[in-house]
Amino acid sequence: MYVKYFGLSELPFKITPDPRFLWYSNQHKEAKAKIEYHLSQKDGPIYLSAEVGLGKTSIAQRLREEFATDKSKKVVLAFAPNLKTANQFMRFIAEEFEVKTARSYADTLKNFERYLLDQYKAGITPILLVDEAQNLPHDTLKTIHHLFNFSTRNEFLIQIALFGQPDLHKRIRRFKSLASRMYMARLQPFDLKQTEEMMKFRWRVAR
Domain ranges in the chain? Predict the structure, then answer.
């Protein structure tokens, strides 16, 4: 009811993430720029760790929107809660990148490797963004680790960024071979001043 009372066009504070309402604090700008750099420069996989509600999903969506305008990039955003097994994950990723899947996990993986090589020769960079990655089963994390093996001498054939709650950071640190190959970005909870600025920004967007 307060939308009508205050003359707003929509709700400024919604539970569902919306990139339009993402207020960029200095740490948001730094985290987004760091992820964008690693993905664009093919500098290695990266993950963003943040508590619920700090904007990690909105950053992932914003990156997808921005990369989608670049014809030299093919970007896929996956939501981890719907992917229960490594085979489901690999089939979903393959289908999103328009790669033929097979009955066996191994054959789908081989098809995907051929696709990555073809994209590399064509000058196209496949980018995989995985949201809510703290929910990924260990076998799926092993699959992501395996994808890092698809590379030339100088760069990875697929660029990957994971977005998740702090438990993602703990799980990656325990997976030492995965941790050794990934960069990290982090978002901290807002202080009082930042919260005030964020609320004012969302109010302006909703007018």
Answer: 32-197
Which of 196, 162, 163 lies closest to 181 in space, CA to CA? 162
Question: pTM for the full model?
Answer: 0.86
| pLDDT tens for each residue of 127-148 | 999 999 999 999 999 999 999 9
Q: Which has the closest alpha carbon to 31: 12, 59, 66?
A: 59
Among 112, 117, 83, which residue's Cα sits nearest to residue 97? 112
State the CATH architecture for 32-197: 3-Layer(aba) Sandwich (3.40)
How many CA atoms, within 13 angstroms, populate the side-chain half-sphere of residue 2? 5
Q: What are the pLDDT digits (tens) for 175-203?
A: 999 999 999 999 888 888 888 887 887 77
What does each C-alpha distance from 113 to 73, 126, 149 come to in angstroms?
17, 12, 10
